[in-house]
Each structure stands twice: as C-alpha cells, then as structure tokens.
Amino acid sequence: MPEISVKLPSLLAQAAGGTRRISVTGNTLREALDDLKRRYPTVAIHLFDETGEFRRHVLCFLNDTSFRGLDSLDHPVADGDTIFVLQAVSGGRQQAGPPT
Amino acid sequence: MYKLVVGTVKGGFVFSSEDRRTWRAEPQIFRGWKLTAVARSRSGRFLAGVSSQVYGTTVQVSDDLADWRQIEAGPAFDTDSGLKLEQIWRFNTATDVMYAAVAEAGLFKSDDDGDSWHPLDGLNQHPTRNSWVPGAGGLCAHALLVDARDPDRVWCGISAVGVFRSDDGGQTWTPKNAGVTKTVADLEHPDVGFCVHALAADPDDANKIYRQDHMGMYRSTDGGDSWENAENGLPSGFGFPIAIDLKTRTLFAFPQESSEYRMPPDGCFQVYRSRNRGDSWEQSGAGGDGASFAGVLRGSLVVDSEDPCGVYAGTTSGTVHISADGGDSWHELRATLPRILCVEIFSNA
Lengths: 100, 349
Hints:
Chain A is of the alpha+beta class. Helices cover 18% and strands 23% of the residues of chain A. Chain A is built from two helices and five strands, in the order ββααβββ. Chain B has two helices and 28 strands. At the A-B interface, α2 of A face loops of B.
C-alpha cells in the first residue's frame, strides 16, 4: 500500500510526539486520512472537528494541490506523495450585499 | 517552591519562587496556543486546557508543569449534539471526580484523573438551552464549585445564562438565580438569563457562596437557592473575578467601572477585599505607582493557601500583580505578557 508523508506545522509537533513529519498509508486520500485518525488520534483532533469534517481554518495540500481543488477525498495517492497541513490565511468580512 | 502559572492568548508562562516575592521565569509552555485553564488533581497531576482558533481544544497533563502530554479522550461533544468544543475555561479538582467547564457552554466529568472526559448531558442538553444566548465572551460555562462534604452537589456558572446546581452528581440541574438582577429577559424560560462571572464558596459551608455577577456582587447562604446583594464599599458592582482565602475567609475582587467601560474606576490597579464575608468591602493595598486601565478576567485572580495568603492577579494588559501579605501590599512581576486569561498558583510544586 502506498506510504504517504504528512508534513505538520510546528504547532502540531508535540501532538505527533515531537516530530513534524509522520507517515500514513492508503490507496486514496480518504484511506490515508483514516489511517492518520487511527494511528495519530492526538494529531487528528486538531485537523477534524466533532463532525469529522476538516476544521474551518485547516488547509491541506496533496503535493502542490489544495484539497479544495480535488474532486473528492477518493483521489488516488501514490507512494512518496506528501500531504502538507497548513493554517489557512483567513480574515476580512463577507460583503453584506452586491457591490455598488 | 511556589509555581505561578499564567495562561495567556499566546501560551503559558511559569514563574517560580521560594518566598513569593522574588520570581524566576521558567521556559514558556504551549507557545502559540491559548492557555485557558490550569489545575492540579488530588493525585498531583497537572491539567491544562489548551486551544487554538485553528487547531481546536485539548486537555494536556503533566507531572512537573514543564513536560506535557496531550490526552486522547479529551472533552468532546457528541457528533449529533450540534455543539462544538471551543475552550476549556475551568477545571474543578476538589474531589477525585473532576469537572471541566467549557465553551460552547457545557460540562464534562472525569473519574480517572483526567485521562478521559464524558459530557454531562443533564446540563449540556438542559431544557432551557434554547433560551441560552452568548454574552460578550461567548456562550461559555466557566465557574465550578463542588461541595467537598457532599460531592454530589455541584454548581456551574454560565455567562448570560446563570448558575445551575446539581444535587445528584451532575445528572440533573436546576437554575439557581433567585434574587439576582436579570441581564437577558426570556419569556419561555424566566429562570435563565443571568450573567454570572465567577463563584467562590466558603470552605466550611458550601452553602455560603459568593458571586461576582455582571449585575453586581451577591452572596447566598442557602446553596444558591436565594441571593442577596453584597457590594457595600465597592466602587462598582461590576467585575469579573472573585477569590476567597481558605484560612481567613477574606474575599478578593477586582471591581471595574460598569459593563460599558470595563476599566478600574480610579484608573489604577486596585483589588478590593472583604474581611467580614461580604458585609463590607475595602481597598486592599496599593497595586502600583502608575495609572492602569487594564481589567482582570474571571479566571485571573487567585489566592494561595499560606498564612498570610498570597494573592495573584493577571491583567488584560499582561501585567501580573502579587501580594504576599493578604493584600496589604502589592508588587508587580517584572514582565509584560500577552493578554492574560487565567492565573493559578501551586505550592510545593
């Protein structure tokens, strides 16, 4: 089964036992994330909320592609791929109405 | 050795002292995380509530306040509850059954020294919940008292909702706010809509409870069944924290000028104390030479167990003020920290 590297932000290193890089396995992104939840529950709680969805400001890339640009988490992964976990840059406020 | 732990929006800061007057900074803990609550269980294990707006909230444990480990089975609302864990605002470790008060407003219980936490749905899904509305600090449970002589009696305070009491170990809860001025009127559930900020109880008699509320300072002698105003001598009834010296029963509070202004009334750091169980209040010793317009949040005023007691206050401007003589005199820690969310003092640490 393909082995995927997960690169974590420094804030989450303690939750991973002091390292910023962990390995998971899976044929798809979903399987790889399920493996992460199983093997690294103290990391997973920082990425997923009570409903199992990604936390709002957690941004993940598969190599150089944002998860948001993928069709679904059933996207296939290959040996040597890397998942990057990032803190989304967020801010501003939603426009209340149409621009005038 | 005394260890003073100061929780801020950007991590925890630990200071150690032999005499409560000279303090040495220890390495920062939880750098980059919000440290919202710290406590020590009866076994001696330290607990911390740590959160991030991005990465969620967890409980961490430590034997020495330096090396911390995140527990796996921390507080978590049921998937179908619709509630999200935002912060852990308070631990109560008075007995071997421990509690954690959290935002969104809820309560969790642990009976294994903090290794696992279980939601108390009697409060979390209380019949009045649809009338709970958040205050300026969010919809949060943050005040906890446990009757050490009858551990089934538990009090929980929720901002803009009120005080609840359980007489059966947290299974069922009843609002206890009679006599307190309401902040949010609700026709469907008139027994909620009270904005408690902090609670303190007499160590000899858990029925004697002191309540710093949004609408004033109150006390109860019947376990919260009724409350009376107790702010004689205070320049303002508004404030956030209240703490009690377990030896002399002296009360400490930090009044602020009204809900609108939220600053010390005289523009200086000033802790007030009551040495007659809330009958009257007086200024404690001066808190410093300069002007100060910072507040003290609900978890940022604590008292140690020495005689005379030490009193410790952290401000929203990141200053820490310490009295080693029961409030007669104060000195300021030589450090300016980020906004302070909680303060705890540990003896023999």
